[in-house]
Structure prediction request, 92 residues.
Amino acid sequence: EGKLTLPVIRSLAAASAEERDRIAAMIRQDDFSAADFQQLVELLESLGGIDYTREQARFHVAEAKRHAGLFSPSPTRDLLFDIADYALHRKQ
Prediction:
């Protein structure tokens, strides 16, 4: 769709010129296959984009839970905590 996600943005910042060109070529493909996707994920992992994104997600979930913790205990607040935890631990 042409939308850059945080792992791609972070990886592009850490990539060499050759790696940036490779990433750009991969995400511009009209016929992006599962094998292409796996190669992209491996490259993003090697450049630290995946780990950075997970760290950011953990930080923002912790902040959201801290703020939600200001509300009185309730099933609704518990549900918000559960949704936040699910977002971190769903299939990656």
About this structure: The two ends are 20 Å apart (CA to CA). The first helix runs from residue 6 to 14. The mean pLDDT is 90.
